[in-house]
Amino acid sequence: MKTQLFRNTLMASLIVQAFSFSHMATAADKIIKIDGSSTVYPITEAVAEEFQRAKGVKVTVGESGTGGGFKKFCRGETDISDASRPISQKEIDACKEAGVQYIELPIAYDALTVVVNGKNDWLKQITVADLKKIWEPGSKVKSWKQVNAAFPDKPINLYGPGTASGTFDYFTEAVNGKAQASRTDYTPSEDDNVLVQGVAGNVGGMGYFGLAYYLENTDKLKAVPIMAKEGAKPVLPSEATVMDGTYQPLSRPIFIYVNATAAAFKPEVKAFVNFYLDNAPELVKEVKYVPLPKNDYEAVKAHFKSLKPGTGFNGSPEIGIKITDLLSRIK
Amino acid sequence: MEHRASVIENLGEVRAMIKRHKRNDLLFAGLGLLCLMLGLVTLMLLFWQLIADGYPKFTLDFLTEFPSRHASRAGLLSAWTGSLLVMTVTFVTAVPIGVAAGLYLEEYAPKNWFTDLIEINVSNLAGVPSIIYGLLALGLFVYMLGFGQSILTAGLTLALLILPIVIVSTREAIRAIPVSIREAAYGVGATKWQVVYDHVFKYSYGGILTGVIIGMSRALGETAPIITIGALTFIAFLPPAPITAEPPFLNFEWLSSGFTVMPIQMFNWLSRPDHAFHINAAATGALIIVVTLLMNGAAIWMRYKIRKNIKW
């Protein structure tokens, strides 16, 4: 009887302990918490892996998407938010209301790549105007012949990211002139590998996604050189053409947003961001994204050092913006 | 003479009918077998595909390495420990609550409209999509109770998810016990609790266990609610150890730790551009299926063992 009683009180105290500990542990441990875009995830993961190995500080990275990441970020739950598009007006307001200030740091480029099936031998290049003709809202283009009379009369099958994606926002802004404006009768998927499969399995297929997914599937897909205007030089997406700014309008900067308070008062967060910017040129390339030009990383580093909070955008993506111009907008 | 002819004619008809019925019988048996095979063969093919794809990663390193950007170096360590710890919390909470609730509903509860309502609700809950539980948990555990995006939250969420399964299977196991056993126990003067604990519970133990394990193996593969409450993807350290060298020897800090689980790790690897990661995903999928099969196998074996020991 006595031992029974003892056992019961022990159990009770353990349960009480369990619950009280659940609040304490977070304060005791130094963990850098990151969440956000799945596009930026591979870069942040690579940095986190190396940083943890080098400095022994724990880093966790989630993948809730840019929007989901900002939700947590503006509640103060994360130190850093990965974003494949600039912070939106709604998110700016949410952060402001919660008193969360942020430092906006571009960390790499992503080249949106327009791809067609590997067996497509008619499309050698495409103008942005033709892309618009295909992708604009209400587009009636059903056959390749409607794009260009010289093309075969094969059905055109379109694959693209879902409407919640930052890639979708940027592509529609760059091609159709308005973010989120797109024809809707294409096959959407949040999983870029599904888009790869779709275009690869369909001679008349066409789709768009980040460069990394094309580079892993060059045996099945063909990237289409983009002409910004009629008569302009067609440009293929590559590290060189993105870095020298000729791959336009489909190359976009991607960002991390750092909680300004954490950057100022948590030495491990500061160390992590500096480590990020120092190692980005190498790690970004390794995960098949395009690094910023060297001078731009210096500018971003100086910007982070100044701890100037705020965004250089007005709540929506901008096409063809220069990193240095962007940083200089924040006073 | 006339009479005899009609009998023979009738006999022919009857034989034809029997033949027809036998043919129908055979037809249905064939159809049933085909349906069964459809499910089985699909599963086998899927499983085989996973094994064939994931084969290069069936190594010990795969289980002892943290996730990495290098597919060849990436492992499941944080994912399987996460799964194990989350399952522990689920087991510890769902089983006592579910079994007690089942026992109460079956043995103690008065039969009235209120218990009917509860019964209908429990059965319906078993069919609620799992993401709904995730949303509930996000509001309740993560924010209202302040448990955060932790192992504790995930374990409790999955516990809610499998609670209806545990309750329903407990009740079914109890119903399988003959009334005569209860009457005999009452007859020799046992109290209700003695009847329930010494007889009803002990004899239905095997059936309850089966339900518990089936529930647990469902929880193991769940992804949606875990993503909803905010599981991580990259986590390259382990939660604090539950057992320590100093008194009180038990440490509950792990409950508040961030985590990832196997299905989430698998999903992440699958969505990568680099095909080498897809091999990791296939190996993870195969592992999840193997663990689930083992759990179900254990359930069958234990039920058999326990049934054998019961002598009425």
UniProtKB/TrEMBL annotation, chain A:
Species lineage: Bacteria, Pseudomonadati, Pseudomonadota, Betaproteobacteria, Nitrosomonadales
Keywords linked to the UniProt accession: Periplasm, Phosphate transport, Secreted, Signal, Transport
Family the UniProt entry places it in: Belongs to the PstS family.
Entry keyword Signal: yes
Signal peptide: 1-27
Role according to the record: Involved in the system for phosphate transport across the cytoplasmic membrane.
Stored SUPFAM superfamilies: Periplasmic binding protein-like II (SSF53850)
Residues of the PBP domain: 27-278
UniProt-recorded name of the protein: Phosphate-binding protein
Single GO MF annotation: phosphate ion binding
Main subcellular location: periplasm
Any one of the GO BP annotations: phosphate ion transport
Organism of this sequence: Methylophilus rhizosphaerae
Record PANTHER family: PERIPLASMIC PHOSPHATE BINDING COMPONENT OF PHOSPHATE ABC TRANSPORTER, PHOSPHATE-BINDING PROTEIN PSTS
UniProt subcellular location: Periplasm; Secreted
A cellular component annotation (GO) from this entry: periplasmic space
Domain of life of the native organism: Bacteria
Pfam families assigned: PBP_like_2
InterPro entries membership: PBP_domain, Phos-bd, Phosphate_ABC_transporter
From TrEMBL, chain B:
SUPFAM superfamilies tied to this protein: MetI-like
A single cellular component GO annotation: plasma membrane
GO biological process: phosphate ion transmembrane transport
Transmembrane segments: 26-51, 84-105, 125-145, 151-168, 226-245, 277-302
Main location: membrane
Superkingdom field: Bacteria
Keywords: Cell membrane, Membrane, Transmembrane, Transmembrane helix, Transport
PROSITE patterns xref list: ABC_TM1
Domain ABC transmembrane type-1 positions: 80-299
Record Gene3D superfamilies: MetI-like
InterPro entries: MetI-like, MetI-like_sf, Phosphate_PstA
Cellular localisation: Cell inner membrane; Cell membrane
Entry membrane topology: Multi-pass membrane protein
A molecular function GO annotation: phosphate transmembrane transporter activity
Keyword Oxidoreductase carried by entry: no
Keyword Cell membrane appears in the UniProt entry: yes
Similarity comment: Belongs to the binding-protein-dependent transport system permease family. CysTW subfamily.
UniProt cross-references to NCBIfam families, sorted A to Z: 3a0107s02c
Protein name: Phosphate transport system permease protein PstA
Organism field: Methylophilus rhizosphaerae
